Each structure stands twice: as C-alpha cells, then as structure tokens.
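Tokens for chain A. Residues wanted.
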C-alpha cells in the first residue's frame, strides 16, 4: 500500500476513534454517573435507566444514517465525515456540563437524552461514511485489510476510554468519580473532536467517488430513497448479516465491564482491566483477519464467526459469570473476541461492496443503523432486563439465536471480494476481471 493510501486510512481512522471514544465512554462510565441523573433506587434500576438512554441514541442512528448517508453520496465522503465529528463534539460538551438530579431534577436527564440523540445522529452517519471511505481509499487487493481499521479505530477509542477510566480509578477516590470525575472523559472527547475536525477538513476525497461515471444511479438520484429501493435486496441483506454481529460485539465490549462487575461479582477496577487487556488483543487481530479475507474471501470468516457465536456464546457467558478472578475472565473474554473478529474485521467492506458508488454511503448507513437500533442498541438493556427478571441465562440464548439467523444469511450470500467498486450495478458484460496483486490499473 502506498503512502497516500496510508494517509487516507490514518485520517479516516483517527476521526472514527474519537467518535467511538465519545460513544463508548458513556457506557463505560455509566456505573459512575447513573446516580447523578436519577433518584435513589437499586443499582440495577439506575443502570437500566442509563442503558435506556443509551439505547435511545441507537434509535437516532437510522435518521443519522439517512441524513449523513445522503450527504456522503451527494456531496462526498469528506463532507459527511466532517459533519459527523462536529455533531459528536457538540454532544460531548452537553454531557460534560449536564446538571445532576440534585440541581435540576430530571432536567439533567433531559440534557443527557438530547446529547445521546445527537451522538446517535452522528454515529449513524459515521459508520457508513468511514466504512465507505476506508473501502474506497484502498487498492482492490487490500480492501479487507484497509477496512479492518474501522474496527481497529473503534476499539482504540474504547481502549482509550477504558484506559482513562483505569487512570481515574487509581488517582481519584470513588466519591470524587461519582461526584464529578465522570465528566473528565467527555471534556477530553470534545477536545479530541475539535482536533479531528481540523484533520478532516484537509482530508482527500476517494478516487472511486471522484471518478465514478455511470454506475446505474442517476446524478439526481444519488443518495435518495428511490435509488436505495432499487437495491432493496442488498439493503435487507445488510440488516440480516449485521444482526448477529452487532449483538455479539456490544455484548463483549460495552456490556462486558458491567457484566463482570454486576453479575460475576468482580471489583469494578478488575472488570475494567479485563476489558482493557482483551480489547488491545482484539484490535491487533482486526488487520490480520482483514488481510486473510483478501486472500480467501469474506464468507469463510463470516461463517466462522456465526458458527462460533451460535455454539459458544452460552458456555462462554456461563463460565464468565463464575470466573471469579482476572485471568479466567480475561481468557474467556479473549476467546469470545477472537470469535467475533470474523465479523468485525470485514463487515465494513462487505457492506460497501454490495452497492454502487452513487448509493453506497446511504446503502450501508440506513440498513446498518436500523439493525443496530433494533439489536445493538438494545443489547445492554435486554441483558439487564433478563437479569432483573431473574433469568439472566436467557440473554445468552438470545445472543446465540441472533448469530444463528446471521449464519443462514452468510451461507446463502455471494462472495464480494472480487467486486470492482466502480462497476457495481453495471451489467456483467461490462465488468473487468479483478486486479491481481502487484498488477497495475490503466
């Protein structure tokens, strides 16, 4: 890969990292600020309230997917990426200054809700814009590898959030963290977003977008629902193939720390350290799996994920509940994250490879956001509901069932590795053979 490709990947990934830092610190610090916005009650009820607001953010993601996906297809990937980080910065500032229940009653929770709606709007467009940008910015034989950096940057954002949490846990008292220390990560997130805004204003547009000729989507129809409806089969495919992956991902990332502390009984510091260490290994696995998909195809990795998640979720979650200490919890967490790497490392490029350039951003954004709103955003709330109802193991079967549905989709879908992004949607006779590694494109 050339220097120009690496530069595009770096700028796209840096912005994605800050976006997801802001998104995930809400989940990782929820145990500290849950009591600040809601009246006294049992700890699980408070977490359910904050998890409910977390889920609401997901329901704005389809709106963000539609709005920012339209911008990405009509104005360019750069314009969409710049707008997403602006919205994320505003939401981080709102959370940082939100008044507590003792000061403004439920007014503070209302501010928190508005901030989460803005975050949902932003992330709804960020995923598709970055997935499309990273996929289009890479050489054809490196698309799996390049697009894997989306989850590297997403995970890096969470690692930074957890790392900051570990530092604060060791330098501040529990009382200070519950009182005001939880605001610190949101202030840092707002500052980071301002830096990324500058970087994205100077980023390069992808050649695929700039050089697209007639790809079957008329100029006036780019980024429209009419054009998306013409590719409705691909849109429904995105929803189905996302279902199992997003539930598993949020289970073993955002929910894992709470599960280890609230269900397995590990101290918060130990639970945070388990997640932190596991996610570092997880981030390192993404490019390796992405590169493997460039050699053997996307479907083998997706099928491996779905089979593993279907049959291993229940035993892994059951053993995690009785892990008891750091090392067993870390080993089981790593096993789970290795399994879902088959999905996370390549799902960005698989979705982008399904659509023509003129509808690619919206085609990835809207159906993916819908799937996340239904399955990803509710994962934590559903898990806590099962726990509050005294049937926590029911959630394990729910995750396994979602993976089983996606497995059926992976087995029936076509391979996308060899698709020419500039010619998706054209008649088969017009398509060129795949560019082999080391070959030049005229």
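Reply:
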């Amino acid at each position: 890969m050339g220097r120009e490709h690496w530069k595009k990947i770096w700028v796209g990934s840096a912005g994605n990292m800050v976006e997801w830092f802001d998104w995930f610190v809400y989940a990782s610090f929820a145990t500290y600020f849950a009591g600040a916005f809601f009246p006294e009650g049992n700890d699980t009820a408070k977490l359910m309230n904050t998890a409910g607001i977390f889920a609401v953010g997901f329901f704005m993601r389809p709106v963000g997917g539609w709005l920012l996906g339209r911008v990405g297809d009509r104005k360019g990937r750069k314009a969409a990426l710049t707008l997403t980080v602006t919205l994320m910065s505003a939401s981080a500032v709102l959370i940082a200054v939100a008044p507590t229940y003792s000061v403004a009653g439920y007014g503070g929770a209302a501010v928190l809700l508005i901030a989460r709606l803005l975050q949902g709007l932003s992330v709804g467009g960020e995923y598709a814009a970055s997935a499309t940008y990273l996929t289009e910015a890479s050489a054809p034989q490196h698309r799996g590898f390049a697009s894997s950096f989306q989850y590297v940057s997403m995970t890096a954002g969470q690692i930074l959030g957890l790392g900051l949490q570990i530092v604060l846990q060791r330098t501040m008292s529990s009382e200070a963290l519950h009182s005001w220390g939880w605001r610190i990560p949101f202030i840092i997130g707002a500052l980071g977003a301002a830096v990324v805004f500058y970087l994205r204003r100077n980023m390069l547009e992808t050649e695929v977008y700039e050089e697209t000729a007639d790809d079957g989507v008329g100029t006036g129809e780019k980024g429209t629902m009419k054009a998306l409806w013409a590719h409705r089969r691909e849109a429904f495919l995105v929803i189905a193939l996302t279902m199992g992956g997003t539930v598993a991902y949020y289970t073993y990332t955002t929910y894992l720390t709470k599960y280890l502390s609230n269900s397995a009984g590990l101290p918060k510091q130990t639970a945070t350290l388990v997640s932190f260490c596991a996610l570092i290994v997880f981030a390192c696995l993404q490019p390796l799996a992405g590169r493997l998909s460039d050699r053997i195809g996307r479907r083998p990795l997706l099928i491996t994920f779905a089979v593993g998640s279907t049959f291993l979720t229940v035993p892994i979650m059951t053993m995690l509940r009785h892990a008891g200490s750091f090392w067993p919890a870390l080993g089981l967490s790593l096993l789970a994250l290795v399994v879902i790497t088959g999905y996370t490392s390549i799902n960005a490029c698989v979705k982008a490879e399904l659509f023509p350039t003129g509808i690619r951003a919206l085609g990835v954004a809207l159906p993916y956001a819908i799937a996340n709103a239904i399955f990803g955003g509710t994962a934590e709330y559903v898990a806590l509901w099962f726990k509050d109802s005294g049937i926590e193991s029911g959630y394990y079967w729910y995750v396994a069932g979602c993976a089983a549905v996606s497995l059926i989709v992976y087995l029936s879908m076509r391979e996308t590795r060899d698709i020419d992004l500039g010619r998706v949607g054209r008649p088969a006779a017009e398509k060129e053979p795949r560019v082999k590694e080391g070959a030049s494109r005229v």
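Residues 34 and 49 are 8 Å apart (CA to CA). The two ends are 17 Å apart (CA to CA).
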